[in-house]
Amino acid sequence: MNLELSQRKAIISGANRGIGRSIAFAYAAEGVHLALLGRNKAACAELADEIAKKHPHVTCAPVYVDFEEPQTIKPAVERGIPVRILNSLRPEAPGTLIAGRLEGGERHEPRAIAFKKGIAVILIAQPRMLMAYGFVARVFEVFDRHRTPVDLIATSEVSISLTVDDPDAVPAVEDELGRLGEVEVLRQMAIVSVIGRGFSRHPGLAARVFQTLREVNVVMISFGASDVNFSFVVAEGDAERAVRLLHHEFFEDRR
Question: In the CATH scheme, what is the homologous superfamily, with its name and number, of domain 9-64?
Answer without folding.
Answer: NAD(P)-binding Rossmann-like Domain (3.40.50.720)
